[in-house]
Amino acid sequence: MVSIVNIFMDYWFAEIITIGNEVLSGKTVNTNASHIGRRLTSLGFTVRRITAVMDEVDEIASAFREAIDRKPRVIVSSGGLGPTWDDKTAEGLAKALGVNLELNKTAFDMILEKYMTRKIPITEERKKMAYMPYGAIPVENNEGIAPGIYVYHNNIDILATPGVPREMENVLENFINKMLRNRSNLKYLEDFIYVENVMESSLAPYVKELVKKYDIYIKTHPKSYEMSHPILEIQIAGSGKQEEEIKVKIEKVKFELLDAIKKLNGIIRNSL
Amino acid sequence: MVSIVNIFMDYWFAEIITIGNEVLSGKTVNTNASHIGRRLTSLGFTVRRITAVMDEVDEIASAFREAIDRKPRVIVSSGGLGPTWDDKTAEGLAKALGVNLELNKTAFDMILEKYMTRKIPITEERKKMAYMPYGAIPVENNEGIAPGIYVYHNNIDILATPGVPREMENVLENFINKMLRNRSNLKYLEDFIYVENVMESSLAPYVKELVKKYDIYIKTHPKSYEMSHPILEIQIAGSGKQEEEIKVKIEKVKFELLDAIKKLNGIIRNSL
To answer: How far is CA B83 from CA A202, A208, B86, B133, B186, in A?
Structure first.
């Protein structure tokens, strides 16, 4: 059986870490991880793991350390950069890297300027956001106060972004535009087929054959009741150096799938 | 500084594993993890980690193995139990436990009955859903075909549920009602305050003091722009053996927080 690893070339793999108890208790749905996942995928990376941990220094440190040990090309975290007692990402990351946490002068200037222009005094809590691991580079946050933290370590681009979605997205884009060193030259393309009246288990043997034949990624997502009223979303995804080549491969796979669906009396839909 | 661990007594901690490339690429938001997190939290568990991994046997096995090594009381996974080539959770779990994957007769009977009553023939793909780690107990799935997988290992209740949300929720409830051995006697309570016109960084020193004073969990979630128009959601959460005791503590904390908010010219809102 063809492994996905072959297709996606795991040299360009990425990991995501989200920090915050609210995700673990289910209070907050982890949309930050989805956004980061989509963005990294669009750049040709394959996200191989997402880890959500509590606001505790040791948990954060171990999540970063374990991710670093798996040698991805990029690690992006979100959460834990704010001014409160439970914002501990900078400390956790420093511990994972084995360096000191120290006042980053550039970060402090960024923060100071934002408060000063609004005539708001700087406090210990506000100053806290300028503490970063030794050697880190602050990343501009145009949507809020806390700068992102960028570190290049063991050939891995490591970025910590704030947890507020708008700020996370902004810091992530600034990092991609100005700092990201490991750039995949892979293109990623995907296409979908929506089908009614075909059970996932009926289509399964065809999908298995096509995955083998084309060395491509096909996944069926059941969207309704398997037996009484089956609706399937079929995802066909590939990545490679030549966009045209992937396009052609996906088209061929779609053609064969549509043929199989016809045999199984499936009804093609335009959307879900 | 008071650690959350003290408050939540991590003897009752839990982990969640979700299996599926669609979560990693950001195609699907991980609402399954949120549901499982909320449900386990309501039972008095503290979810300490959520790990999302690819549909690969080795990745699934390592996620389970690492979770088992951290000695939680419960591990709940979702995804990867279906009939297709990329459904590999049973195999990954067997590998993590160091046991064989084998045809589970009870599971096979469950599956057979569902197809037979609808006069649908059994195929290799459909039979696949009956393969489970040696010693596993199938968990009834009243919303679909694939049964859940329950294993009691190293004093840990391990449950694998399907990835379709409706099926996951049903299998989870069947497991809680019939199989869950490690039952927390802790009650968990939480309350919220919504406030306008107070910056998170202004409230931070008060929150820090109250966390110390009451040994309770307080978290501020900024919902708008920190400086131009700050809106905060303040979460106050506690758990313990006596429901009344936690209630009183949360009320006292709320009282002191409202006092601090008044000092900071905050405006209390009824909701976000």
So the answer is: 9, 11, 8, 16, 39
How distant is the Cα of A21 from the closest Cα of chain B, in angstroms? 8
Interface test with B, best of A25, A86, A218 (most B CBs within 10 A): A25
Give CA–CA dist B177/B170, Å, rounded.
11
Q: What's the CA gap between B46 and B40, in Å, rounded? A: 7
Residue % of chain B over a pLDDT of 90: 77
**pLDDT more than 90, % of chain A:** 77
Predicted confidence band of residue A212 (pLDDT cuts 50, 70, 90): confident
DSSP 8-state assignment for residue B43 = T
H helical segments located in chain A: 4-8, 21-24, 31-42, 57-69, 89-97, 105-117, 124-128, 165-178, 200-214, 243-263
**Confidence band for B59, pLDDT divided at 50, 70 and 90:** very high
For residue B208, the surrounding DSSP H or E stretch is helix B200-214
Which secondary structure element, helix H or strand E, spans residue A163, and what is its range? none
* B contacts of A27 (beta carbons < 8 Å): 37-38, 235
Contact A164 B3 (CB under 8 A): no
Confidence of residue A144 (pLDDT cuts 50, 70, 90): very high
pLDDT tens string A226-267: 667 889 999 998 888 888 999 999 999 999 999 999 999 999
Give the model confidence (pLDDT) of B87-100 as tens digits. 999 999 999 999 99
Distance from the Cα of B145 to chain A's closest Cα (Å) equals: 8
Q: Which residues of A159-188 are buried (b: 16+ CB within 10 A; e: fewer)?
A: bbbbbbeebbbbbbebbbeeebebebebbb
Q: In the predicted model, is pLDDT for residue B6 greater than 50?
A: no
For residue B129, the surrounding DSSP H or E stretch is none
Å from A170 to nearest chain B CA? 14
Domains observed in chain A: 4-178 (3.40.980.10), 187-269 (3.30.70.380)
Q: Please give the C-alpha separations between residue B228 and each of A80, A117, B264, in angstroms, as whole numbers.
A: 21, 12, 15
Whose tokens are 């009553």? That residue is B117
3-state DSSP assignment of residue A159: strand
Is residue B116 within 8 angstroms of chain A, CB to CB? no
Q: Note the pLDDT of residue B64.
A: 98
Chosen for mutation from A9, A66, A125 (greatest number of chain B CBs closer than 10 Å) is: A125
